[in-house]
Amino acid sequence: MPAKVAFARDVDEGLSKEQKTLPSRYFYDGTGSRLFQQIMELPEYYLTRCEQEVLTTNKQAMAALFARGSYFHLIDLGAGDALKTKVLLAELTQQKLAFDYVPVDISGDAMQQLSKSLHNEIPNLKVEAVVGEYFQSLDWLQENKSERKVVLFLGSNIGNFEEPESIRFLTSVRSYLQPGDQLLMGVDLRKDPEMILKAYDDASGITAAFNLNLLQRINKELGGDFNVNQFRHYAMYNPLEGVMRSFLISLSDQDVHIQGSNKTYHFNAWEAIHTENSHKYTIPQIKMLGQLCGFRIEKVFYDSKQLFADVLFAVDQ
């Protein structure tokens, strides 16, 4: 299905629900990707700094665990600009390990920019970028099933799934892997609720612009007539569930027409569009999730304050 047709279908499906939703995977057009890069540099957004610390501090240990004496594919799901992954790429290259790099991202712009930057920074690295959603990229794994794989799923992207979705996703990934393959997954750990909330509702408004850009993308690509000024970003964290949720709130009674679906959608004043979840975990929760999906924890790597973890899962018989 063409990407624009799928986009229109998903938007129509979400806005036709009683509780309106929009899929967070559509955040990342060119503008959205640039805004997210700005978010990662915000003082409130601890996640990137923490995971960068984890990877920088433990890169040699990770490389040693990846090195099993045979050629492997390093598959980076949701690669983006691969800022953090480049720490590993440099270490793996320095150790002269035999591997290639397969970054996967829904943003074609991001993959073009990444391929160019890697060509300049690590010219001898073999790169095969894949543009598509996570599940589509698993077809690539299927075609290369017999070769060893180390899959990266960094940045706490697993937290964007509801629990049933995370189980389906990880079970699907596991079905394409063989004994000896590995999965390195970033997870944001539970912590002070105020710290979490500020990370998703920064004082400078970059996160708000990132959320609102989803409406601008609908206007641009699907012929929508959203008045973006009549919506605002709203974020809330539930410490009982460990879930950060983001919304777009309609500031007035209004109708929005989208040419791509040839439909008009009504919004009541203060009605919410749910745009994103971000789950926070404990390590026992992650261990149980891995076991449900056929993975065993091989090693847990933390930052110095144990705010974030990169969990290396092994695939056994």
Automatic annotation (TrEMBL):
SUPFAM superfamilies with a match to the protein in the record: S-adenosyl-L-methionine-dependent methyltransferases (SSF53335)
GO MF terms held by the record? methyltransferase activity
Q: Please state every residue range assigned to the domain named Histidine-specific methyltransferase SAM-dependent.
A: 7-313
Q: Does the keyword Methyltransferase apply?
A: yes
- Provide the alphabetized UniProt keywords: Methyltransferase, Transferase
Look up and give the organism this protein is from.
Answer: Pontibacter korlensis
Gene Ontology terms: biological process: methylation
InterPro entries given for it? EgtD, EgtD_Methyltrsf_superfamily, MeTrfase_dom, MeTrfase_EgtD-like, SAM-dependent_MTases_sf
Asked if the Swiss-Prot or TrEMBL record annotates the protein with the keyword Methyltransferase, the reply is yes
The protein's name: Methyltransferase
